[in-house]
Amino acid sequence: MLDNYDAFIALPGGIGTLEEIFQIASWAQLNIHYKPIGLLNVDCFFNKLLSFLNQAGEENFIPHSTQQIFICASTTEEMVDKLEDFVYKPDHVAA
Question: For 80, which DSSP code?
Fold first, then answer.
């Protein structure tokens, strides 16, 4: 299934939605894929989740390469534009 899609989009939802978001994000952290995860932020639904992800990144619990796959938009049109513009940039690792 993973190979059939160019991106993932999550709409506001409950525990099952969050589980799917984090499963896909963990796959990215394990280098299984480099595809964006779109969060359709209707009525600012995902704001607190995004704040958590930013804080976790600042405290080095989430690498930048994983953080960057989260794409947030408040409309479908904005989401499509951002997903079309998405370019994955791997973290630079010192040799």
Answer: H
The predicted structure's pLDDT at residue 70: 97
Indicate whether this model's pTM tops 0.85: yes
On the question of pLDDT at 1 being above 90, the answer is no
70 strand-pairing partners: 37
- Output the six-digit token pair for 61: 């619990």
Please report the sign of the dihedral spanned by the C-alpha atoms of residue 53, residue 33, residue 29, residue 25. Answer: positive
Report the length, in residues, of the chain.
95
Selection from 38, 6, 4 nearest residue 20 by Cα? 38
CA 15 to chain centre: 16
The whole-angstrom separation of Cα 63 and Cα 71 is: 15
Neighbouring residues of 51: CB distance < 8 A, sequence distance ≥ 6: none
Q: How far apart are CA 33 and CA 25, in angstroms?
A: 9
* CA pair distance 61, 30, nearest whole angstrom: 14
